[in-house]
Task: inverse folding
């Protein structure tokens, strides 16, 4: 699911789930590649999994990116209890890497 900045902030304030946020851009080649990995993994996590996976466009959420020090794309940030728990700049090369990142905090 793709969110804007306001909806993302609301999600963080209201969810009890782990939130995995993928910060990318339409013009970013590596983001397009990682987006396929992200979509496949997010399809495996339903609403009852305790994990919410969202995409954000860095060009549309500049204040949020500043607040979170997102300066490279793709960047994946894992939020637990609405706080940054982990971050991975550059995404993951495959589904297994992303899934291990999630399982570590689940």
Result:
């Amino acid at each position: 699911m793709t969110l804007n900045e306001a909806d993302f902030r609301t999600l963080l304030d209201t969810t009890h789930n782990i939130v995995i946020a993928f910060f990318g851009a339409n013009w970013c080649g590596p983001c397009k590649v990682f987006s396929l990995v992200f979509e496949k993994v997010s399809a495996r996590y339903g609403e009852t999994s305790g994990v919410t996976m969202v995409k954000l466009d860095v060009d549309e959420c500049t204040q949020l990116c500043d607040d979170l020090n997102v300066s490279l794309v793709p960047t994946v940030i894992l939020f637990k209890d609405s706080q940054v728990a982990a971050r991975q700049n550059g995404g993951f090369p495959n589904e297994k890497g992303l899934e291990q990142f999630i399982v570590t905090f689940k």
User: Anything to note?
Assistant: The chain has a mean pLDDT of 95. The longest strand covers residues 18-24. The chain has one domain: 5-105. Helices lie at 5-14, 29-44, 62-67, 95-105.
